[in-house]
Amino acid sequence: MTSELTYRRRHNEMEQPAAYYGKPMKLIHYMLREQRLVFVLVGIAIATVAFTLFSPSPIPIPIPIPHYSDQLSMRSESSSLAQSRRIEYLTGGMGSVGGKIPLGLKRKGLRVVVTGGAGFVGSHLVDRLMARGDKVIVVDNFFTGSKENVMHHFGNPNFELIRHDVVEPILLEVDHIYHLACPASPVHYKFNPVKTIKTNVVGTLNMLGLAKRVGARFLLTSTSEVYGDPLQHPQVETYWGNVNPIGVRSCYDEGKRTAETLAMDYHRGANVEVRIARIFNTYGPRMCIDDGRVVSNFALRKEPLTVYGDGKQTRSFQFVSDLVEGLMRLMEGEHVGPFNLGNPGEFTMLELAKVVQETIDPNAKIEFRPNTEDDPHKRKPDITKAKELLGWEPKVALRQGLPLMVQDFRQRVFGDQKQDTTTSSSTE
Ligand code: NAD
Ligand code: UDP
Ligand code: UDP
């Protein structure tokens, strides 16, 4: 009995806190005995989980994320704005505030916006971005583009299509902006020249403002037209051009030149990461059938091959898959540019007509028509810079690419047998 009491007393003494004894070592011993430390740690863990799950959050409970499948990718502009505003609200309008992002809102993959993504070049670019798993938002007012060009992505949760005119501001949260929105064919951009200037200037300003706000990288699709009727041949990026500022093509030429200026000013003044591509004549499947460009007119072939002027003016034609590869390399790379992206193979319009006769229709007749105003006499890119810094050069020769385009046109116009019009078929 005595011994048991003695034992209990000793035991109780050992359980007294260190303050009682005034010796820190004893507290350590006390904690280590009978796994008390483990119980304390488990208690802390349970309290932390309970606090995280049940405590009122300073961030409001997120509004349910819209069902992409319901929208079949055709989201109204307002719902998209609401979504982006919601995320902006959650992040305090600062893109990322570095705080804890609620579960389900964490980003996966790259978010890319393609303005003009329902157009000819844009839709091929979208195909490539989607294929590599990016989340792609197409912003387009369907002036020259169409839903048909991107409808094969409808229903894919990584794809969104917003009917929106870039002349109006828009709020989105993205990592990359490919800014293509602008009619490219002379027939289209001359149709409403003031609108063309607004698209190039105000539209580009808005997209640069967006890039600045969310810290996105911005790629501008400029044009070889910035060289005007060039006095230097072939055209190198350092050439400043020979542009008529008051002619019928000026809305496009000067519009794109101003867009380049804006891009560089946002780069220098607001540290926006910009990329500038100067695109030379591009052709391929999904070109607008009635856009009046020479390759479309020749590919359509419901009339004789209409050669404007004496047909001695030259152009360099690149297949669309080559361009898309160049645009993506430029966006991913570290160089601002500008970079010429074009095929250096140079053809007179008469030579082009002969290629069409050789590869498509030997019976095609050539008919001369008066040329249009301010038509540049020569155009051929010097692509040394793109070769060296982007490791890029075109792969598809005109003779290979033209038949692919003609197949696509025939299928669309005359309903010929189904043809594969994707870009991959031509490059591989
Ligand atoms: P495209 O006309 O097929 O595509 C342009 C797209 O932009 C269309 O879907 C159109 O609906 C959309 N768009 C036009 N204005 C808009 C606006 N205000 N708001 C929203 N969307 C608008 O032309 P493309 O050949 O695909 O050209 C794409 C880009 O490449 C253009 O910026 C063009 O200037 C440039 N580019 C093209 C070529 C070429 O040969 N295709 C050559 C040089 C430069
Ligand atoms: N802008 C936009 N989306 C954004 C941020 C800006 O459309 O997410 C537009 C904005 O409406 C403005 C333009 O981009 O007209 C330029 O924006 P910036 O912030 O550079 O200039 P500011 O608004 O100060 O004139
Ligand atoms: N062109 C032509 N026949 C046509 C359409 C155009 O000879 O049916 C000429 C036009 O005069 C220009 C060249 O082809 O010299 C390229 O014109 P396009 O409109 O395709 O593009 P641009 O380079 O002028 O933007």
TrEMBL record:
Segments crossing the lipid bilayer: 37-54
Enzyme class name: lyase
Cofactor: NAD(+)
Presence of the UniProt keyword Membrane in the record: yes
Protein name: UDP-glucuronate decarboxylase
CDD domains given in the database record: UGD_SDR_e (cd05230)
InterPro entries, sorted: NAD(P)-bd_dom, NAD(P)-bd_dom_sf, UXS-like
Organism: Eruca vesicaria subsp. sativa (Garden rocket)
This protein's UniProt keywords: Decarboxylase, Golgi apparatus, Lyase, Membrane, NAD, Signal-anchor, Transmembrane, Transmembrane helix
Domain NAD(P)-binding: 114-403
Molecular function terms, GO-annotated: UDP-glucuronate decarboxylase activity
Localisation per UniProt entry: Golgi apparatus, Golgi stack membrane
Family the entry assigns: Belongs to the NAD(P)-dependent epimerase/dehydratase family. UDP-glucuronic acid decarboxylase subfamily.
